[in-house]
Amino acid sequence: PAVTAPYELQVKDLVYAYADGHHNVLNRINLKIKPGEKLAILGRSGSGKSTLASLLRGDLAPTAGSVTLNEIKTTEFGDDIAKYIGVIHQTPYLFNTTVVNNVRIGNEAASDEEVWDVLERVGLKKLIKKLPQGLETMVDEAGLRFSGGERHRLALARILLKDAPIIILDEPTVGLDPITERALVKTFMDVLQDKTLIWITHHLQGVEHVDQIVFIEDGQIELQGTPKQL
Ligand code: ATP
Ligand code: MG
């Protein structure tokens, strides 16, 4: 299926249990994520945040209830979901190929100019420009070894090139030092300004930037409100 803007995600009475699990990881979650909204999802380790991210993107199918994008179940989109919802995982995957190919994954038709443009927006242009082989530098053991923060910037560049309207960040700053983390959160917020953002995090650093915060505990939404209210 295909849908058009404005994009709205809706979660209705969502229940999820892993096939081999003995309990519901998520139990009756209800959420409406409006076009352009910035939502932070907080919760302890194991509370079901990453599971919820997979359900939002339709990578997992609900045990009960539904997740819809403009009234269509996200599981029905198949690979096309990437046009609408992009994810940056905790440890972004880099491929054993050139910088330019790493950015272009899933968007092979993009020009070098477009690649430079997104690299500039995520703050990697200077670094890549300095390399003798520039965009053609290999990203591997023998070539360029990105730091944790740079990996996330590259993953962000990849997502910007695809231009999906909804972005899910699954703990994008975990394991980084506080200064790098702050800089990265700022970059995310700046370049994702016009997008719907679902930001999964385990602590409060940076959440003052969002419109809505949801706390998940024991598979349920325990608290919900704006940063000021909470
Ligand atoms: P963290 O903050 O550590 O990333 P989380 O909130 O993202 O945690 P999830 O990864 O969604 O938590 O896991 C929620 C629960 O589901 C945990 O109890 C976990 O052990 C369980 N779980 C996760 N993935 C699977 C799986 N593939 N099969 C069975 N159980 C799983
Ligand atoms: Mg997780």
UniProtKB/TrEMBL annotation:
Residues 9-230 form the ABC transporter domain. It is found in: Cell membrane. This is Thiol reductant ABC exporter, CydC subunit, cydC. It comes from Ligilactobacillus animalis.
